[in-house]
Amino acid sequence: EIVLTQSPGTLSLSPGERATLSCRASQSVSGSYLAWYQQKPGQAPRLLIYGASSRATGIPDRFSGSGSGTDFTLTISRLEPEDFAVYYCQQYGSSLTFGGGTKVEIK
Amino acid sequence: QLQLQESGPGLVKPSETLSLTCTVSGGSISGTTHFWGWIRQPPGKGLEWIGSIFYSGSTYYNPSLKSRVTVSVDTSKNQFSLRLSSVTAADTAVYYCARGGSGWAYNWFDPWGQGTLVTVSS
Question: Which of A31, A56, A90 sits opposite B105 (nearest CB)?
């Protein structure tokens, strides 16, 4: 099973700042088959990124994904108030697993 | 617009079987070549994939839950279902249904249902 480790656990930032979230896999994720989701309290997760770097429909371009192999990154270029949430990565290269999440909170 | 809605008992007794149904609207399960999946989230914790069913009927399960899980589909009702047997308090979670990809290489989840809380308690 591929284990995904997200860091940091919590990121404290101010609106307008840049957020960089990491997702590290215990073994290489084939085909860069990695997705990112955003989850707000009381809501279902929302797909942001698939294929490591492709934005889902309707996702603002301040969200970008990068990486390959075992190291992946989600970047939010300028945080908007609605971006403060928990973010999860998910790999689908070998079975399906999720990372533990990174909480982006207001500083 | 495709929408998914979970339904089922909110309280299940220990050792019994948890049964949930996901009703799909705005599109036909049988008319697409997608996976349909179940994911859960214990209170205050992260996401865990439970299992998925492909449009062809093939099923895939999380190895850690495989012995207790059954996912099935009823195309006549445009629904798919989850059964989790021998539940314990550790199975208390919000259970989500979601559409997966049109093949394993596209197996992200979008869209998701709103989720339903299932509590295991006597």
Answer: A31
